[in-house]
Amino acid sequence: MESSANALPSTPANIQDRGCLNASNANVTNFISVKLSGKHSYLLWKAQILCMLGSNDMRGIVDAAFVTPRDYGSETMSKYNYLVKCWIFGSVTKDVLVMCSVSVRRKLFGKN
Fold this sequence. Notes:
There is one protein chain. The chain has about 110 residues and is mainly alpha-helical. The protein has a domain at about 35-110. Helices cover about 55% and strands about 0% of the residues. The protein contains 6 helices and no strands. α1 (about 10-25) runs parallel beside α4 (about 75-90).
Protein backbone atom coordinates (compact mmCIF):
# COMPACT_ATOMS: atom_id res chain seq x y z
CA MET A 1 0.00 0.00 0.00
CA GLU A 2 1.41 3.39 -0.97
CA SER A 3 2.01 5.85 1.84
CA SER A 4 0.28 9.22 1.82
CA ALA A 5 3.71 10.89 2.02
CA ASN A 6 4.25 10.01 -1.67
CA ALA A 7 0.91 11.42 -2.83
CA LEU A 8 0.86 14.78 -4.58
CA PRO A 9 -1.08 17.51 -2.79
CA SER A 10 -4.32 18.51 -4.51
CA THR A 11 -3.30 22.03 -5.41
CA PRO A 12 -4.97 23.70 -8.42
CA ALA A 13 -1.73 23.36 -10.43
CA ASN A 14 -1.45 19.61 -9.73
CA ILE A 15 -5.11 19.04 -10.58
CA GLN A 16 -4.66 20.94 -13.86
CA ASP A 17 -1.51 18.97 -14.68
CA ARG A 18 -3.46 15.75 -14.12
CA GLY A 19 -6.23 17.07 -16.35
CA CYS A 20 -3.73 17.80 -19.11
CA LEU A 21 -2.20 14.35 -18.66
CA ASN A 22 -5.63 12.72 -18.93
CA ALA A 23 -6.48 14.79 -22.01
CA SER A 24 -3.14 13.95 -23.63
CA ASN A 25 -4.04 10.26 -23.41
CA ALA A 26 -7.03 10.85 -25.68
CA ASN A 27 -6.29 9.50 -29.14
CA VAL A 28 -7.67 12.01 -31.62
CA THR A 29 -8.41 9.29 -34.17
CA ASN A 30 -10.82 7.64 -31.70
CA PHE A 31 -12.89 10.82 -31.51
CA ILE A 32 -12.50 12.52 -34.89
CA SER A 33 -13.84 10.21 -37.57
CA VAL A 34 -13.84 12.80 -40.38
CA LYS A 35 -10.49 14.38 -41.14
CA LEU A 36 -10.49 17.95 -42.37
CA SER A 37 -9.67 17.62 -46.03
CA GLY A 38 -11.26 20.76 -47.46
CA LYS A 39 -14.40 22.90 -47.36
CA HIS A 40 -16.67 19.91 -47.88
CA SER A 41 -15.61 18.26 -44.60
CA TYR A 42 -15.19 21.39 -42.46
CA LEU A 43 -18.57 21.42 -40.66
CA LEU A 44 -18.35 17.76 -39.61
CA TRP A 45 -14.70 18.15 -38.56
CA LYS A 46 -15.47 21.34 -36.61
CA ALA A 47 -18.36 19.72 -34.74
CA GLN A 48 -16.16 16.78 -33.73
CA ILE A 49 -13.12 18.83 -32.69
CA LEU A 50 -15.29 21.21 -30.64
CA CYS A 51 -16.88 18.24 -28.86
CA MET A 52 -13.45 16.84 -28.07
CA LEU A 53 -12.28 20.21 -26.76
CA GLY A 54 -15.47 20.65 -24.73
CA SER A 55 -15.21 17.21 -23.16
CA ASN A 56 -11.77 18.22 -21.86
CA ASP A 57 -12.77 21.76 -20.74
CA MET A 58 -10.56 23.25 -23.45
CA ARG A 59 -13.04 25.18 -25.65
CA GLY A 60 -11.79 28.48 -24.21
CA ILE A 61 -8.45 27.91 -25.95
CA VAL A 62 -10.04 28.30 -29.40
CA ASP A 63 -13.27 30.19 -28.68
CA ALA A 64 -13.39 33.38 -26.60
CA ALA A 65 -17.08 32.76 -25.87
CA PHE A 66 -15.97 30.01 -23.49
CA VAL A 67 -14.12 30.79 -20.30
CA THR A 68 -10.71 29.32 -19.63
CA PRO A 69 -10.24 28.84 -15.88
CA ARG A 70 -8.35 31.79 -14.44
CA ASP A 71 -6.18 29.75 -12.11
CA TYR A 72 -4.40 27.95 -14.94
CA GLY A 73 -0.75 28.87 -14.77
CA SER A 74 1.17 29.82 -17.89
CA GLU A 75 2.98 26.47 -17.94
CA THR A 76 -0.29 24.54 -17.81
CA MET A 77 -1.85 26.75 -20.49
CA SER A 78 1.19 26.19 -22.69
CA LYS A 79 0.74 22.42 -22.34
CA TYR A 80 -2.94 22.68 -23.24
CA ASN A 81 -2.18 24.91 -26.25
CA TYR A 82 0.35 22.41 -27.59
CA LEU A 83 -2.06 19.54 -26.99
CA VAL A 84 -4.82 21.29 -28.96
CA LYS A 85 -2.39 21.95 -31.82
CA CYS A 86 -1.44 18.25 -31.83
CA TRP A 87 -5.11 17.25 -31.96
CA ILE A 88 -5.73 19.64 -34.85
CA PHE A 89 -2.66 18.47 -36.76
CA GLY A 90 -3.70 14.86 -36.18
CA SER A 91 -7.20 15.49 -37.47
CA VAL A 92 -6.42 17.08 -40.85
CA THR A 93 -5.09 15.55 -44.04
CA LYS A 94 -1.56 16.07 -45.27
CA ASP A 95 -2.88 18.25 -48.09
CA VAL A 96 -4.52 20.61 -45.57
CA LEU A 97 -1.30 20.82 -43.57
CA VAL A 98 0.62 21.71 -46.70
CA MET A 99 -1.93 24.43 -47.52
CA CYS A 100 -1.27 26.20 -44.22
CA SER A 101 0.01 29.65 -45.01
CA VAL A 102 3.21 31.16 -43.69
CA SER A 103 1.18 33.42 -41.41
CA VAL A 104 -0.53 30.42 -39.79
CA ARG A 105 2.84 28.73 -39.27
CA ARG A 106 4.15 31.94 -37.69
CA LYS A 107 1.19 32.05 -35.31
CA LEU A 108 1.63 28.39 -34.38
CA PHE A 109 5.39 28.25 -34.14
CA GLY A 110 6.49 31.88 -33.87
CA LYS A 111 8.74 31.74 -36.94
CA ASN A 112 8.72 31.16 -40.71
